[in-house]
Write a structure and sequence with these properties.
The protein has about 775 residues and is mostly helical. It is about 80% helix and about 0% strand. It holds the Pfam family FUSC_2. It is a multi-pass membrane protein.
Length: about 775
């Protein structure tokens, strides 16, 4: 365990240090070109500060694919802004200019038009915002003054500065060797395989634990590994987008052959391992003396060998061959199945069946195929929708409430920042707008925290720059002093104190002082820029509070109700799902859509809760973060249980239709499924009563009674044991001579699937109970 965590720490440290060094390299290239480059080049780069900004935006935490994508976004932004700016400056004439109010209005209108389309990436929007600010502020400064060059050429200088920053980013990712996302993903996949192997070894040991204390001690050892695996998967997911720009042909072939990307396959594995851990955590240890120890050891040893073979493939997920060619597994094609005969005495424990069901899904390609088919169906549906109804979809997205709010927020904030910034100081007024241009994000954010970290980062970066300007008067020494600071602040982006916003601000704060020349006294420039940054942040806070006055704590409560309504719909859909195969296809597709919606709502609730934790209380009550964190955990478990319930429903449906040797169990299966659906229907009724806004007061009075009544309709065995399992021994004795090996495996599959389904539904009801308890704690916290 320690070796895996240490390996991940080493890889994370190397990746972060590598990113920091490449960021410093990109800034050094820009500095060397603008300070020591040939006069022909220096004469075209009149906005060196924006070259630094572009390089930092593109190269931060980037691989070569990310950098190529960032260069494309910079090109798209330049095409949007520069040609129209040149036309406008040409119309104004050689001595024409803009007044402060007119320039602010132009910035607001242009920012609205850039921010409104959804097809433009956020990076392209940020660069375009910065170019708009520079063009308009330059037009204000040049108003009525004679220039050595034509006014319509000044936007070209902005484009050249942008191009220099993009070019420096590409060179920094190529020297001394290409920083490919493929190599990073390959390393992370290897570490993930080691991590998963250690986790599964712990889970197998916990399965044999003789008491709850020993089992919980082993599970606690797996917790750090589980958190590490989630972080590795997140990193792989991020790098996966960059891989598309490095080798786009591999991804096209992957889509053509209906194969999964590394992140998709690992996410499927992670889900199965979460189910295995949940089965161990939520159930007591069984007495191992009820089964032969040697047989149990052989069973678990065989499962361990199969797991090792499966996890060996994870290290090859990032290679193009593994994504485009079918894999040969040899003996691995034989999937392990829970051997019921030697383990029959422990089958009364429903969690055992769910435990081995998750292992089967982990090792079985059918789980990955199911996951892939759902993802590919979603992508194809989106593709068909975009082709058939492209224009209608574009119009609807263009006028959507969220798009209009984001565009209006960018427009108003940039317009106000430019207005007050230019009024205060015409020469340095652009910094108020540039501060906001590179910091806009889509969706809600913790505005006070962001403004605080950005202000602090700008301050410490400016102070660092002023100190080194005082100590060294030679430009060469200043540039050398800048490089370690860029590395330090690049690492600072991973800290909780400053984060991404504060780290970037600290980098830029020093860059604009140490990486330029002929700007006047450093002290005066630092003070002027800090003032402009304060003006920009004030405009940012004012607009955010004006357009989104609702606190994140209030949003969390409202979003919780929306999530519970979606949960009710999912359970209702499962409770009415038919078991005839010809009727299940449409039903399961509809159910998956609702489950994806519920999963996205839970993820959004998690983000809102994180924002509410960072939000200052002021005169409000403190945010009940502990209750919301527990509630999000229970909802995440519910999402997982719904996935397993749906998967087992599908498997039962297929077995009941295709199997010809389990006819004697057909009526019993229908009876079991009716009991399961009755349990789910009780949960639906409970959710409707407990979470209805109209009957909130009534539900509060009767909630204790509802918690008791919820037991009505539950499984006859609280551990999820099926009556089908209890009849297995008798059926096996009666048909021992007639039933062959294939028939026996079919029966075992059905028994395992049914027992796992019973455990999942019992766990689902338990998680719903825990969710309601957390909700009641939140209500009591807010009402008292």
């Amino acid at each position: 365990m320690a070796s895996t965590i240490a390996a991940r720490s080493r890889i994370a440290w190397r990746m972060r240090l590598n990113s920091a060094v490449r960021t410093a390299t990109a800034c050094a290239i820009v500095g060397g070109a603008t300070i020591y480059g040939p006069k022909a080049l220096v004469g075209e780069i009149k906005f060196a500060a924006f070259s630094y900004l572009t390089a930092v935006i593109i190269v931060s935490d980037a691989s070569l694919g990310d950098t190529l994508r960032g260069c494309w976004h910079a090109f798209c932004a330049t095409v949007q802004v520069v040609p129209l700016a040149m036309l406008a400056r040409w119309i104004m004439g050689p001595t024409g200019g803009l007044q402060v109010g007119v320039a602010s209005l132009v910035v607001a209108v242009a920012a609205f038009l850039v921010a409104l389309p959804e097809c433009t990436h956020l990076t392209a929007k940020r660069i375009a915002f910065g170019q708009i600010v520079l063009v308009c502020s330059d037009a204000v400064i040049g108003s009525g003054a004679s220039r050595s060059t034509a006014g319509f050429m000044h936007p070209v200088y902005v484009a050249a500065s942008t191009g220099l920053g993009a070019l420096a980013s590409v060179l920094a990712l190529l020297v001394p060797y290409p920083g490919l996302a493929h190599s990073k993903v390959r390393k992370l996949c290897g570490v993930y395989a080691e991590n998963a192997s250690e986790r599964m070894n712990v889970y197998l040991r916990a399965f044999r634990a003789e008491d709850d204390h020993a089992k919980m001690e082993l599970i606690s050892q797996a917790k750090p590994l589980s958190e590490t695996g989630a972080k590795l998967l997140q990193s792989i997911r991020i790098l996966q987008e960059s891989m598309q720009w490095e080798k786009p042909w591999t991804w096209s072939r992957c889509f053509k052959h209906n194969l999964l990307s590394p992140g998709d396959r690992l996410e499927s594995m992670e889900l199965q391992m979460r189910g295995i851990e949940y089965s161990l955590v939520s159930s007591p240890a069984f007495p191992v003396q009820v089964v032969d120890q040697e047989q149990l050891s052989n069973i678990l040893k065989g499962v361990s060998v199969q797991l090792e073979q499966k996890l060996e493939q994870v290290t090859r997920l990032s290679r193009s061959r593994s994504m485009t060619e079918p894999e040969t597994r040899g003996e691995f094609m034989e999937k392990p199945l829970l051997p019921l005969e030697p383990m029959f005495p422990i089958l009364k424990y429903g969690w055992v069946l769910f435990y081995f069901s998750c292992i089967d899904m982990l090792l079985n390609d059918a789980a990955d195929t199911c996951f892939a088919s759902r993802e590919l169906q979603t992508r194809r549906a989106k593709t068909e929708f975009s082709i058939v109804r492209a224009f209608k979809s574009w119009i609807l997205k263009l006028v959507s409430k969220e798009r209009l709010r984001f565009a209006f927020k960018c427009s108003l904030a940039l317009g106000l920042a430019m207005l007050f910034g230019l009024i205060f100081d015409k020469e340095n007024g652009c910094w108020a707008g540039l501060t906001l241009a590179i910091s806009f994000v889509q969706g809600r954010q913790a505005v006070f925290t962001v403004a605080n970290t950005r202000g602090q980062g700008t301050a410490i970066g400016s102070v660092y720059g002023v100190i080194w300007c005082f100590l060294f008067h030679h430009e060469e020494l200043r540039l050398l002093a800048l490089l370690p600071w860029i590395i330090f602040t690049s690492l600072l982006r991973y800290s909780k104190m400053y984060g991404q916003t504060g780290g970037v601000s600290a980098t830029i704060g020093a860059l604009l002082i140490l990486g330029r020349k002929n700007y006047g006294e450093p002290n005066e420039f630092a003070i002027a820029r800090l003032t402009e940054v304060f003006i920009g942040l004030t405009a940012f806070l004012a607009v955010e509070l004006l357009l989104q006055p609702i606190r994140a704590a209030t949003l969390a409560k409202n979003h919780l109700h929306q999530t519970l309504c979606s949960l009710r719909d999912c359970i209702k859909e499962i409770a009415t799902c038919p078991m005839q195969k010809n009727q299940t296809v449409v039903k399961f597709d509809k159910l998956r859509d609702k489950q994806r919606n519920l999963s996205s709502l839970v993820c959004e609730l998690k983000k809102i809760v994180a924002d509410a934790e960072l939000e200052p209380d002021f005169w409000y009550l403190p945010f009940c973060s502990s209750c919301y964190q527990k509630l999000v955990g229970h909802l995440s478990n519910i999402v997982d249980m719904l996935y397993f319930i749906t998967s087992n429903f599908e498997r039962l449906s297929e077995l009941s239709e295709t199997s010809t040797i389990c006819k004697e169990f057909r009526d019993q299966i229908s009876s079991e499924l009716e009991l399961f659906q009755e349990t789910l229907s009780s949960s639906v009724e409970y959710l409707e009563k407990a979470h209805s806004i109209e009957s909130q007061a009534d539900s509060q009075e009767t909630v204790d009674e509802e918690l008791k009544d919820l037991e009505v309709g539950k499984l006859q065995n609280p551990d999820g044991q099926s009556a089908l399992i209890t009849k297995h021994k008798e059926a096996e004795m009666n048909n021992e001579e007639e039933v062959g090996e294939d028939n026996r495996r079919q029966r075992q599959k059905m028994i395992q699937c049914l027992g796992a389904l019973g455990f999942c539904i019992s766990s689902l009801v338990k998680e719903i109970d825990e969710t309601e308890i957390c909700r009641r704690e939140i209500d009591q916290w807010e009402n008292h």
